[in-house]
């Protein structure tokens, strides 16, 4: 597909449920981030309903001011899913049946053991003439890319993606990004420095001079819950040799914040922990109370976790702590379930039960109820039992129940990582 | 302030950090929901950067098509905060110093024990001539409401609100909503029907006549991963008594899809399961393999889960299944870990270990590797052990590893729900 040079982009999210505020629009932010990583700046984000007339108006406006327009949503099988047909009509292209997509849809329903494909699903195999069809590995709706001329003799590329993030994100990463890379005017080289155990403003103040003075590469904070991330971005001319200006800046950041950094690159904390354990041939198990399985879920979200992770005991009930993790009843009587002693006993018991090199235990008060003056909501005890010793750590977190739980997962995995490294 | 009748609205969120995807736009969804509850339908949501020229273009477009325009963001003290000045210029109104706002700002800094007010904060007391000023109890930036005539002799109301939700939401509720109520023509009443175990298009085809013929209330599908949702919306005249036209439609939907419906209302599936167990005084435990603790995490995300949920064994490793859940080694030798027999044994063992009324077990292949022709990725076995019997169910899911895991969680919880209900 012949494409235009892309300087400016905009994002159009189609869906009446967005206009009614029934779901929060996370696609626009995700796509905006991905585009900015490619050096493409998006000047507008628009949400429009499943309405052909208003979507057509939007396409007129957008094609008049942007080189790239990414649309999400409205590719479903239902009557009000009309993005593909509206774009085709706007571009003056007929809708043609796309053989492979038709077969993919049939295969998908067969996989789901549904012999009969609902007739309206076939609509999802209709594509604008001349479009590059983007396969959907996670749903029935394929996407499409179409480059068309504008009235003022430019070329505009339209990208139609499905609405569900679980379908949209992999489709963008696998099929759209590789196309866009060819069309950007500058190449950006990003390096992420990810850290835990320091506040954003504290970290920023230590890098203030770099953030304000650096021009190439630039250093910018990057919002992320429960951790702090900085993006070091070097821009390379299209043909410029890959001369690395980033390394020096990175090592300066390491000099100032090294102790907090868990990753220089793109791996998430669970990935880093999983890789560390695998490299060293270590095994791990968890004993979770207030996090209720979230730490285990986070680690097993990484393919290949099974090489180091054996199992987890979610000990939500006191009796489970006593009977399954062999926490002495006296410990709970004397100190309570949310205590250093209980966390320590949970980790030790967990290590025996699962027979692993390390065991991580978490007990705390996630809220919203159950707090006291002495033990407020947000009080968390972590313990790691290893070959040499059992170490513990106290956290005092703030925010909603879900936030406290999510931040605890990160803090706990980082605590485990530090113990493995010492 | 004399205001126009409001039929259509749109929301404009101003902020470069939104365009870069550094923060997710929750304001648009929150405002859209508030407006729809007032019977004001918003046809567009736009995000534009802190840029006077592009914001002015946006205002031209928006005032041309909507009766009400709500802007959020760009009311801060810094140089790039230019929403108020841009709107004033667009409306041809001079900016005047607003005495009370100036005093409020001074008082606020005194509260923060800062004697000296930064000079650029005074800018926040400058308001467009003729605007209704909206006090800010949670920040320094007051908002404003301004009704102006359009070129086509309509009147358009512009509302400027601060960006932080903690300031924007109370300002809307306390100062804006009371004004809008006077100008709306209808009120809307929404009801949601949530179901699992049926595809979106299959469900819709059974309701096609309702979706297409119903005018009040309207029935519309609503996208959600792993489940299907329909929204039933009744519009009530301003003075109309709350005569319920919704109930009849709901019961018609129940007649056609009742078996798949798990909730008529707003509760999520984990909430429904937790409430069901609590009401009946039942306890539950889980044995998770491929979901790695996600089911347990989902249930414990609901406050009060502890009354019915005791614990979970994440048996990721074969030995854990054998030693902790007492799955006979022969079962695994003969049938493998991903098999009906293994799921059945896991559920039975789990029920003994945790001594609960019900136990739910899950074992399967989430991918991305490990699949075979006989046992493809996406093959999942569920088992529920209860007081009377052990029942099993097979799933064949498609998509990414994370999608397969997320959908399995919903299917497993629904399977448990159905067993409890039988």
Low-confidence stretches of chain A: none
Count of the separate structural domains of chain A: 3
Per CATH, what is the topology of the largest domain in chain A? Molybdenum Cofactor Biosythetic Enzyme, Chain A
Note the main sheet of chain A: 6 strands, mixed
In percent terms, what proportion of residues of chain A is strand? 15-25%
Q: What's the oligomerization state?
A: homodimer
* CATH architecture heading of the largest domain in chain A: 3-Layer(aba) Sandwich
Q: Per the principal axes of the C-alpha atoms, what is the gross shape of chain A?
A: globular
Report, as a whole number of angstroms, the end-to-end distance of chain A: 53 Å
Question: CATH H level of the largest domain in chain A: which superfamily?
Answer: MoaB/Mog-like domain
* Mean pLDDT score of chain A: 91
Strand order of the largest sheet of chain A: 2-1-3-8-7-6
The CATH class of the largest domain in chain A turns out to be Alpha Beta
Number of DSSP helical runs of chain A:
14
Helix content of chain A: 25-40%
Radius of gyration of chain A: 26 Å
| Number of β-strand runs of chain A | 17
Give the structural class of chain A.
alpha/beta
């Amino acid at each position: 597909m012949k494409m235009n040079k892309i300087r400016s982009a905009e994002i159009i999210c189609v869906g009446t449920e967005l206009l009614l505020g029934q779901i929060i629009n996370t696609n626009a932010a995700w796509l905006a981030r991905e585009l900015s990583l490619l050096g493409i700046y998006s000047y507008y984000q628009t949400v429009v309903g499943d309405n052909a007339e208003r979507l057509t108006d939007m396409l007129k406006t957008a094609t008049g001011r942007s080189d790239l327009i990414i649309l999400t949503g409205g590719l479903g099988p239902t009557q009000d899913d009309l993005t593909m047909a509206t774009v085709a009509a706007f571009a003056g292209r007929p809708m043609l049946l796309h053989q492979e997509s038709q077969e993919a849809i049939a295969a998908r329903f067969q996989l789901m053991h549904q012999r009969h494909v609902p007739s309206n699903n076939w609509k999802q195999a209709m594509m604008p003439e001349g479009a590059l069809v983007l396969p959907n590995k996670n749903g029935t709706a394929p996407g499409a890319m179409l480059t068309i001329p504008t009235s003022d003799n430019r070329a505009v590329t339209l990208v139609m993606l499905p609405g569900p993030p679980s379908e949209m994100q992999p489709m963008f990463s696998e099929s759209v990004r590789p196309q866009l890379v060819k069309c950007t005017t500058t190449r950006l080289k990003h390096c992420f420095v990810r850290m835990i155990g320091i506040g954003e403003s504290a970290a920023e103040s230590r890098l203030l001079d770099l953030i304000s003075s650096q021009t190439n590469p630039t250093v910018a904070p990057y919002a992320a819950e429960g951790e702090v991330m900085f993006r070091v971005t070097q821009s390379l001319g299209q043909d410029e040799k890959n001369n690395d200006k980033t390394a020096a800046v990175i090592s300066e950041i390491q000099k100032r914040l090294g102790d907090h950094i868990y990753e220089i690159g793109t791996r998430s904390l669970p990935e880093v922990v999983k890789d560390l354990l695998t490299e060293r041939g270590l095994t791990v198990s968890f004993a979770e109370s207030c996090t209720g399985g979230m730490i285990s879920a986070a680690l097993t979200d990484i393919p290949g976790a099974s090489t180091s992770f054996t199992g987890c005991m979610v000990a939500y009930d006191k009796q489970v702590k006593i009977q399954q993790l062999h926490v002495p009843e006296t410990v709970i009587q004397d100190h309570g379930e949310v205590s250093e002693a209980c966390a320590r006993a949970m980790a030790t018991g967990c290590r025996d039960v699962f027979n692993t090199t390390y065991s991580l235990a978490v007990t705390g008060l996630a809220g919203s109820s159950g707090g006291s003056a002495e033990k407020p909501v947000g009080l968390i005890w972590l313990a790691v039992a290893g070959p040499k010793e059992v170490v513990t750590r106290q956290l005092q977190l703030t925010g909603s129940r879900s936030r406290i739980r999510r931040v605890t997962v990160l803090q706990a995995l980082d605590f485990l990582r530090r113990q493995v490294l010492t």
